[in-house]
């Protein structure tokens, strides 16, 4: 029975601490943007790390196609 006298106040202190930490987090904007990080991973931001030869569906800056793209287009036509 003596352990209950120790555990109940300890539990109340831990709950109060948890409520205080949660309210601090809400006031400081920790929960403002819940969707941003989840959607950010879907964006392809590593395009500059892929070698130009390995890229597909990207045109050259001067508008010309690679030889591989030209041969692919020629084989698709006929």
UniProtKB/TrEMBL annotation:
Pfam families: FixS (PF03597). The keyword Membrane applies. Residues 42-78 are annotated as: Disordered. It comes from the Bacteria. InterPro entries: Cyt_oxidase_maturation_cbb3. Coiled coil: none annotated. The chain crosses the membrane at residues 6-26. The keyword Membrane applies. Keywords: Membrane, Transmembrane, Transmembrane helix. This is Cytochrome oxidase maturation protein, cbb3-type.
């Amino acid at each position: 029975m003596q352990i209950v006298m120790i555990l109940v106040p300890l539990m109340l202190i831990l709950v109060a601490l948890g409520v205080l930490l949660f309210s601090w987090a809400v006031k400081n904007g920790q929960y403002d943007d819940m969707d941003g990080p989840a959607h950010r991973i879907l964006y392809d931001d590593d395009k500059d790390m892929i070698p130009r030869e390995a890229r597909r569906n990207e045109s050259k800056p001067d508008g010309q196609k690679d030889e591989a793209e030209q041969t692919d287009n020629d084989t698709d036509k006929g």
